[in-house]
Design a protein that fits this description.
Elements (H helix, E strand, L loop, with lengths): L12 H15 L15 E8 L2 E8 L4 E4 L3
Antiparallel strand pairs: 1-2, 2-3
């Protein structure tokens, strides 16, 4: 259960840069040819708050993932 005081963790500039590079390299491959709908939507950010820290997973609709542990 998420407490009322939970806040979305901030992404560092380094994490943002890594995500951009991952997306760019990933999107040049098989995913570039896939249709993701009229407004895109191929990327999902999944945050899992736990008692030992927050975990972030960036997912593409093709199944590729980029994981960050303990934000």
């Amino acid at each position: 259960m998420v407490s009322e005081k939970y806040q979305f963790p901030k992404l560092t500039p380094a994490m943002h840069k890594e995500m951009q590079e991952w997306y760019k390299t990933h999107n040049e491959g098989r995913c570039a040819r896939a249709y993701h709908g009229a407004i895109g939507g191929e990327i999902t950010f999944e945050i899992t708050p736990t008692s030992i820290g927050d975990f972030l997973t960036v997912k593409c609709s093709c199944g590729a993932e980029l994981n960050y542990e303990e934000l």
